[in-house]
């Protein structure tokens, strides 16, 4: 299993290529315990008061422990062990995603049915005998119940037969909270249904939504989901990507504009919102750079003029070190961010030497640049 921590909230298509993973290997029973402990140690904490203990405050993981245990065990029981791909557990700032090689042998419409179809019956038996797993066939239904009892959004599940994969997403908040309603009030002119509002919140939090996910969060059918997603696309709130069963939807121009306006309203003095951690606006200092880059950057920062090709190669070297925003690059090189973007970054993108961290959303407020492999 690979545990990957991604800064910020925005969905990243290929996390293993951009972020370091904590690899966990070992016998399945001991591995399950290690993985569960790693996840719980890294989750945000929630404070609760125990009335039976004189109001004493206790600090617990934000997500139910049993739901996390079920998710980990389900990965081990149902994965396709003939695949060379590892199980990935990706921790974003606002959610945790479980990505398992091996599509579900049970159809999406039957996820809530008590019966289970086992890909690895012997492993399932061991997990039940060691009490890691609860009643057979109850995993998804139990995870939904535990999340809803904790006042959180029900997890979403996607099974992709073509890609031979299964994923589960656990958000750290409940849909249509007071804060969500305040944000959604800016979309009144679109006359959205509650289901469509949930879809916008999901895209805001996760970065993309598919027909199957829409059906999951709204408990609706394929036709109704397709109709609603089409309306959101026609309103430029969403934009479709892919085709056929692989089609999914990302933020469209109208939604991107409103997300950017919302971010700017929160901090009008900030040139860019940094995605290294929740609420952080970290600026990179020259002292933070590797030794091989410090001298090059200092020479440019100290001199007001430099050959364009030298500037471009230095920018590429910086973005090869780690993904950086325009304001971070400008701060290191002591240049104006707008000038730098117009003079160098756009050209390096056009020529394929740099690429966006979020290629489907060029105007994303958390956009960064990285060296194209």
What does it look like?
This protein has 373 residues and is α+β, with helices and mostly antiparallel strands. The chain has three domains: 2-171, 2-Layer Sandwich (Heat Shock Protein 90), CATH 3.30.565; 178-257, Arc Repressor Mutant, subunit A (Orthogonal Bundle); 273-371, Arc Repressor Mutant, subunit A (Orthogonal Bundle), CATH 1.10.10. It has 14 helices and twelve strands. The strands form four sheets. It has a six-stranded mixed beta sheet with strand order 2-1-5-6-8-7. Strands 3-4 form a two-stranded antiparallel sheet. Strand 5 and strand 6 (95-101) form a beta hairpin. Helix 3 runs antiparallel to helix 4 and helix 13 (326-333) packs across helix 14 (337-350). The two termini are 26 Å apart. The model is unreliable at 264-281 (pLDDT under 50).
């Amino acid at each position: 299993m690979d545990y990957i921590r991604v800064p910020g909230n925005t969905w990243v298509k290929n996390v293993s290529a951009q972020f370091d993973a904590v690899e966990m290997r070992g016998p399945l029973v001991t591995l399950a315990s290690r993985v569960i402990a790693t996840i719980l140690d890294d989750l945000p904490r929630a404070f609760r008061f125990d009335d039976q203990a004189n109001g004493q405050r206790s600090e617990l993981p934000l997500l139910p422990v049993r739901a996390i245990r079920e998710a980990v065990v389900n990965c081990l029981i149902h994965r396709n062990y003939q695949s060379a791909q590892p199980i990935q557990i990706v921790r974003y700032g606002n959610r945790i995603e479980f990505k398992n090689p091996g599509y579900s042998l049970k159809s999406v419409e039957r996820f809530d049915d008590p019966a289970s179809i086992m890909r690895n019956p012997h492993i399932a038996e061991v997990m039940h005998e060691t009490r890691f797993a609860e009643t057979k066939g109850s995993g998804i239904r139990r995870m939904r119940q535990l999340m809803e009892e904790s006042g959180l959004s029900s997890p979403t599940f996607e099974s992709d037969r073509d890609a031979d994969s299964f994923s589960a997403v656990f958000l750290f908040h409940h849909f249509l909270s007071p804060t969500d309603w305040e944000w959604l009030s800016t979309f009144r002119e679109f006359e959205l249904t509650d289901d469509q509002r949930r879809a916008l919140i999901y895209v805001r939090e996760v970065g993309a939504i598919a027909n199957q996910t829409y059906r999951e969060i709204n408990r609706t059918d394929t036709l109704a989901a397709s109709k609603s997603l089409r309306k959101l696309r026609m309103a430029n709130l969403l934009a479709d990507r892919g085709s056929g069963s692989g089609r999914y939807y990302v933020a469209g121009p109208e939604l991107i504009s409103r997300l950017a306006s919302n971010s700017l309203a929160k901090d009008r003095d900030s040139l860019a919102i940094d995605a290294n951690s929740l609420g952080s606006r970290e600026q990179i200092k020259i002292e933070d750079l590797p030794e091989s880059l410090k001298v090059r950057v200092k020479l440019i920062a100290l001199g007001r003029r430099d050959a364009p090709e030298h500037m471009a190669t230095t920018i590429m070297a910086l973005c090869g070190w780690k993904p950086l925003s325009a304001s971070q690059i400008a701060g290191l090189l002591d240049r104006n961010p707008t000038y730098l973007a117009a003079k160098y970054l756009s050209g390096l993108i056009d020529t394929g030497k740099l690429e966006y961290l979020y290629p489907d959303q060029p105007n994303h407020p958390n956009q960064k640049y990285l060296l194209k492999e």
